[in-house]
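Before going further, learn to read the protein records used in this course. The integers have meaning only within a learned vocabulary of local backbone shapes. To see the layout at work, look at the sequence and tokens printed below.
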Amino acid sequence: MSTKKNLKEEALHYHAKGRPGKIEVVPSKEYATQRDLSLAYSPGVADPCMAIYENPEDVYKYTAKGNLVAVISNGTAVLGLGDIGPEAGKPVMEGKGLLFKIYADIDVFDIELNTKDVDEFVRTVKILEPTFGGVNLEDISAPECFEIEERLKAELNIPVMHDDQHGTAIISSAALLNALELVNKDISKVKIIINGAGASAISCTRLYNSLGAEKKNIFMFDSKGLIHPSRTNLDGKKIEFANDNMPAETTLAEALVGADVFVGLSKGNILTQDMVKSMASDAIVFAMANPTPEISFEEATAAREDIIMATGRSDYPNQVNNVLGFPYIFRGALDVRSKVINEEMKLAAVRALAELAKKPVPDIVNLAYGESNLSFGRNYIIPKPVDPRLLTTVAPAVAKAAMETGVAKFPIKDWEAYDTQLSKRLGQDNSLKKAIRTKAKLNPKRIVFADAENLTVLKAAQEVQDEKIATPILLGNVARITQLLDENNIDLPYAEIIDPRADEQEERLEKFGAIFFEKRKRKGYNQFEAKQLMRNRNYFGAMMIETGEADAMIGGMTRNYPETIRPALQIIGRQEGVKKVSGMYILMSRFGPLFLADTTVNFNPTAEEIVEITELAAKEVEKFNIKPRIALLTYSNFGSADGEDAQKMQKAVAILKDKHPNMVVDGEMQAHLPFDIDLLKENHPFSDLVDGRANTLIFPNLSSSNIAYNIVKEVANIDKIGPILLGLKKPVHVLQLGSSVREIVDMVAIAVVGAQGK
């Protein structure tokens, strides 16, 4: 089965599973009691209605308008699919809404209009104005998109932006400024070739003009050739960039001779290596056609060493991705209640993005892209989409530009408070998951799947293989596994399938049994028992790791926890100096990842064992380039109550502070306190955690940790990774019963990262 077909089925399943679609509406106020409902609706709702009637600006105070954007399309230019209609375009609009939410905490209603009539489109959006704080136009064909945006900007009092035009323009402009700086070229003097003359190309070229590029030096091509004044077939906005400084019959190849910059917004594979070689020294090539660039990164960089190359793809350096722009531009515009998104606001976003690329890169970004030290240079001219500083950099720049140009109705007075407000909106959950998978892909390992007769496990193994995270080794009945693969169209050509009970494994069983007997001969096992035990998949898999035939193991889908962990302890053993292994979960909260320990192994650890659990957890957190901020939890706050657990956690904190003076750790404290920083400052200003939320939580016993984990992940409905076993010499992780494909893949990535460090 082809990877393309697999991806299609996976994408369809992704959109249909659970609640269909990618977005939903959730209440933002209490609604549990009759009084809540009387405030939310009748009779209480009449009061904000009248307040807004008396002062229309209060709509931003009492309703969601100020944080609500409409993503509106008629489906006439959807991705590269063309005019597929409003219903077929809806998944894209929902996806846009998802990006608005996860990157800038902006709520979205997507609206698909069944009309190609410009007047009808404009009128419909205009009468919707009272509902929304802003309008993001999407996937509308040219030249209608130009007229629609221009009319709506003129007729509405809320910001309007057609992202297909301006998103690429803003991001590529930032990239262009930095690329030119690196090669020490003046934007007013460089020769720029634009291949493509659609909405995005027109908008890009206009913005380059605003930054100082001279029209006389810009040569634009469409499918019929050079945009030249002598042509009689120029429609839409193309005539704006007609240039007679070259003959009308000049080809793209001829125009590129001596050119400094190529900007591709057309179709794949139209640029050759010879064309690239003909360009000026330190050539800048932005090949932004998707999914296939005008020339591949490999071909372009092979053609010449001095090239600066950008594409629209995430698997190469310098990705020109609109998500670097629209969430933060609308965030800044909404926060000052701007009437428009004007040229100055777009230019402010350009300069903010360009400057951010020159600053030291956070560790979480380096980790997410498998880099040790990203820094401003030819392969890093624009920030990465997972950079957590984008929100606090671009949004304020846009907001300031709106204020300076007089279009802001609600100016920001306290910029420090605004920065804090922005920082609280989003966590690092998506960044961390991407970071883990990306790091795994840098050095894939051989992973044993101990429960390969399970369909979910096989699906996860295929994703692991397709994503190049690891090479699967499948344990189980070969005929049964093969049948499941065939029946479910799962293709695992590189996976080894091993049945520990099969006759052909006799030599391995002898070898593994002898090793196990030597390890356990004084612990109740004879030679026959040792060999027989190797027929158990968990023992066989653990022995593969011990002998170097594999690097890590995932199990637990069809066995209880002790049956999976016992072989690992007996065969692989604990790390040097570790007395107790422990377990940890990662919960992906909106405020960033939360690390919880011990959630799976130790029933009632002593203070000394709590110390070891904390040390192991802190070491694991640091693997993700996150500084541990640790809270030891119980029912008492810094001696406010007595009892065995309170005293135990007090003692553990004292030991930790003595052993690790630089560790950020405190307690004992109740579970809410490390998150309510204002309350912590007010009552316990001496705490190590008053400067920010805790990210690592240590519990007094297995009961409290497991209960807390299960309640939070079910009630909050948030992503999780785990349980991660801490303290073994080599990575073995035990899945929860009912783990999903995604959860298994995340655990495999964790295992690979662990194996890389061994």
About this structure: The longest helix spans residues 163-183. The CA atoms of residues 47 and 204 lie 47 Å apart.
